TrEMBL record:
PROSITE patterns: PROKAR_LIPOPROTEIN. It comes from Radiobacillus deserti. It is found in: Periplasm. It holds the Pfam family NMT1. This is PhnD/SsuA/transferrin family substrate-binding protein. Residues 1-22 form the signal peptide. The keyword Ion transport does not apply. The lineage of its organism: Bacteria, Bacillati, Bacillota, Bacilli, Bacillales.
Length: 364
């Protein structure tokens, strides 16, 4: 979507462009898709695969990929006989067709009109698990205001007449902005919407006082606060407590033709997410170990920053706010940004996480 949101959030839209020919056979481990389902070494649920299988993940170092990184580093994928291969794409226009074709098994997606339009136009991908939401009171994607305006802006109503930077139109950022102004009892005409695609530029603009507020992302929220450029204002969960920001996407081929592999992959992923929640939400377990893994895979290399920032919310049971996905879709549709019709229930597929949670148990 844009640089810092991609890095922190879940959007595969950055840096390197994958040469797909290098991994054409990776998602099937070089095997014919017509072979019978993979057997396991015992009758136990989720016993290791008899033969190792490769799963290709489109991931570019975003913080919301924590479950993937932790599962890899702690050996959860290997325990099930799975090798993971991380690949990157220049943008979602390149990534989504690769997922639909089964050249990539798993990826991350952000709610946006363009994403829904791609699916409506025949790009067959499924939303299979949570990959990003705000944690109440600790949102990693929230509003900030200039530090010198703290006395002037003391409530959301005080955003009236102010210049507010938002990174996109007709995407989850725009939706959260809309929920904020509704919460404040304002209209779009009351606030000057400043489209600014780069989150780093938002911080610079706050510094030179060309904007008054911004819908900002971690770690820039924390960095700007430490540099006395801005201060966090409230929390996005004040007005959008169940906003589904990003989703794990699955290839239909992976979900249907390689179901036994997909189950083991999801079990390893959820175990990684649970370790993440233990460390950052419950403050238990070996937090330093998890931080070391995050510094290895993401753009945030300073362990001290990981102890200060608002981290990405990741549901340890894989659940998504499905009703909110539908609400966002309707918001884009009302704005005239949706081409064609889409039944969200046909796109959301929680069957895999439900099946796996029944086996590994529910995280409380």
């Amino acid at each position: 979507m844009k640089k810092f949101l991609v890095r922190w959030l879940a959007v595969p839209s950055l840096v390197l462009v994958l040469v797909l020919s290098a991994c054409n056979n990776s998602s099937s481990g070089g095997k014919d898709a017509e072979e019978e389902p993979v057997a396991t070494t015992s009758d136990k649920p989720l016993a290791p695969l008899k033969e190792p299988e490769t799963v290709v993940i489109a991931e570019d170092g975003s913080a919301s990929g924590a479950g993937f990184y932790i599962a890899k580093e702690k050996g959860y994928f290997e325990e099930y006989g799975i090798n993971v291969k991380f690949v990157t794409f220049g943008n979602s226009d390149e990534m989504l067709p690769a997922v639909a074709a089964g050249e990539v098994d798993v990826a991350g997606g952000i709610s946006s009109a363009s994403f829904f339009n791609s699916i409506a136009q025949g790009i067959d991908v499924r939303m299979i698990a949570d990959k990003g939401h705000n944690i109440k009171g600790k949102s990693y994607f929230s509003f900030v205001i200039r530090k010198d305006l703290q006395d002037e802006i003391q409530s959301y109503e005080d955003f009236k007449g102010k210049k507010v930077a938002v990174s996109t139109r007709n995407a989850v950022d725009d939706y959260i902005f809309q929920k904020m102004i509704e919460h404040a009892g304002l209209t779009r005409d009351d606030v000057e919407f400043v489209l600014m695609s780069d989150f780093g530029n938002m911080m610079s603009s706050m510094g030179n006082k060309t904007v008054d507020a911004a819908l900002q992302i971690e770690p820039l929220i924390t960095q700007g606060t430490e540099q006395d450029i801005h201060v966090r204002f409230g929390d996005a969960t004040d007005f959008a407590p169940k906003a589904q920001i990003a989703m794990v996407l699955g290839s239909p081929k992976f979900m249907d033709e390689r179901r036994e592999v997909a189950k083991r992959f999801m079990a390893a992923y959820l175990r990684g997410v649970r370790d993440y929640n233990d460390a950052f939400v419950k403050e238990k377990g070996n937090k330093d170990e998890i931080i070391d893994i995050m510094t290895k895979y993401t753009a945030v290399k300073d362990p001290k920053v990981w102890k200060k920032v608002g981290v990405t919310g990741l549901n340890p049971n894989g659940d998504m706010f499905v009703d909110n996905i539908k609400e966002q879709y309707e918001f884009y549709k009302e704005n005239g940004a949706i081409r064609g019709d889409l039944d969200i229930d046909q796109v959301v597929d929680l069957s895999l996480v439900e099946e796996v949670v029944d086996i590994i148990g529910k995280y409380e």
